[in-house]
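fyi for ur records
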Amino acid sequence: MTTTADTHRSPAARRGTAALTVTALTTALVTTAALSAAAAAPAHAASGSASTLSAAAQSPSASADTFRDCPALPAGVDPSQWRCEALTATGSLTLGSRTVPALAPMTITHAEGPLADGGDGQVWGAMRSGPGPVPGGLLGIPGTADRNPWTSLSLMPEYGGRSDFYSTGNSLGLLTLRFRVLSPLLPRTCVIGRDNPVELRLQRVGGSQWVSQDPPVIDFDARDDAFAVPAATGCGPLGPLVDAHLGVPAATGNSIALSASYTFATYDRLPVG
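which gave:
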């Protein structure tokens, strides 16, 4: 069960047009936006939503905190036959022509088990993540963001609304993501995949390692390099600069590589605290 919650010009031509406007956009908009934004904190500086996560990635343990996002079960099912599953992962991401070498830790929680009618069931829980800095910042110039934080640029993955975690062999199912594009000079609405989320079909790479039997903790690596990425939307007048710098839209050349730790507990044995 899955859960929900000009086009006539080539991408290279669009990026070429955008490149011609970068200087004017940067001079007229970056300076103006930086001066006006200096009076207020960046819109993305703080968030109380489930899309933030503490800094360090660790193998999950069977604590109440690990399973805080376990969803409510469907009516009429047996809790002892349903597992809450939590996966924590870090890794690298390439969208178009730009690589984020160190994604912030992200945790994905869902539940699965037999439905009352005997079918397979899944229920989405939550995704927690944080921003990963893009080298070169908004202008794509190495070191610029370090010298001028107003030109910093980060990508933060968010749940795209569809998932199917039943796996077959090394295929780990489906996960859709959006990527929020964060910079003090961009509106909070700047997102890659807002209307057409990126579809990941991760494949396990190599074997899995049982780190612990009690609590159960399994480590593994996963990768996908066959997904398409749309252009960013909602980015305001700096949208062409964002697309040109990131190299999106991109039908090929995208990849994500993750190192993950996975744990689970049946609902009748979920830790409390």
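The CA atoms of residues 58 and 88 lie 8 Å apart. thats all i got for now
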